[in-house]
Amino acid sequence: MNNNIYQKSFQFAVRIVKLCKHLQMEQKEYILSKQVLRSGTSIGANVAEAQQAQSKPDFTSKINIALKEAAETDYWLRLLHETEYLSKTQFESMISDCDEIESILVSIVKSSKQ
Q1: Domain of 24: which CATH number?
Q2: pLDDT at residue number 3
Q3: In which domain, by residue range, is 44 found?
Q4: Integer Cα distance of 66 and 60 in angstroms
Q5: How far apart are the C-alpha atoms of 70 and 111, rounded to whole Å?
Q6: pLDDT exceeds cutoff 80 at 1
Q7: How many CB atoms lie within 10 A of CB 43?
């Protein structure tokens, strides 16, 4: 598997954790931040599980779950931005990373089905 996705999803999870700390400490926002924390960190966890997959279908399943979590994270980031918890700069930086991860995961899913 592309080890690049492991590193990118891990670094994204670190950013998500820091974002959630900021949302909770500075903005006193607890509900949406927990949602984005769960989905945003789950991407990398599923990528890590995929690396230890017992079979090709198991691998594909874990990568698909990671892709679904990335799509959910995209949703929460957009909601946080639209409700003015994230500035335009914060949002653009986070969504750019999320979109890149989604693109890589889509590519992995497509190549694993061949």
Answers
A1: 1.20.1440.60
A2: 81
A3: 3-112
A4: 10
A5: 18
A6: no
A7: 29
Question: Which residues, 6+ apart, have CB-to-CB distance to 19 below 8 Å?
Answer: 33, 36, 40, 86, 90, 94
Question: How many structural domains is the chain composed of?
Answer: 1
- Amino acid residing at 59: F
- Rounded to an integer, the average pLDDT of 86-105 is 97
* pLDDT 10s digits, 4-27: 999 999 999 999 999 999 999 999
**Could you identify the residue written with the tokens 């509900």?**
31
Dist. CA 70–CA 104, nearest whole Å? 11
Residues 61 and 4 sit within 8 Å (Cβ to Cβ): no
Residues 81-91 pLDDT 10s? 999 999 999 99
The Cα 28–Cα 57 span in angstroms is 42
Widest CA span of the chain, in angstroms?
Answer: 47
Q: What is the pTM of this model?
A: 0.94
